[in-house]
Write a structure and sequence with these properties.
Strand content: under 5%
CATH architecture: Orthogonal Bundle
Radius of gyration: 12 Å
Structural class: mainly alpha
Number of helices: 4
Number of domains: 1
CATH topology: Non-ribosomal Peptide Synthetase Peptidyl Carrier Protein, Chain A
Number of strands: 0
Helix content: 55-70%
């Protein structure tokens, strides 16, 4: 999946969970969107469901920006394909 495709899906999921739209790769979930820990937990669940991955708790707080989620999902996708 291309970065633009990931961004589109992430925008959709963030909107479904929070009602917030208009994201950029540099958008910070906490600082820019003022999400609380429950919002973050709900987003992580949405990411896991949509992308069919498991995100360990130790990785959750590394995903502070949209760009981090895109990079994380691309790496997971590449590992799943054996690349």
């Amino acid at each position: 999946m291309r970065k633009e495709d990931y961004l589109s899906v992430i925008e959709e999921l963030v909107y479904q969970v929070t009602g917030i739209s208009e994201l950029t790769p540099d958008t910070d979930f906490i600082r820019d969107l003022a999400l609380n820990s429950l919002d973050v937990a709900n987003l992580v669940c949405a990411f896991e469901d949509r992308f069919q991955v498991e995100i360990p708790v130790r990785d959750v707080w590394k995903l502070s920006q949209v760009r981090d989620v895109i990079d994380y999902m691309q790496k997971k996708e590449m590992r799943a394909q054996g690349l």
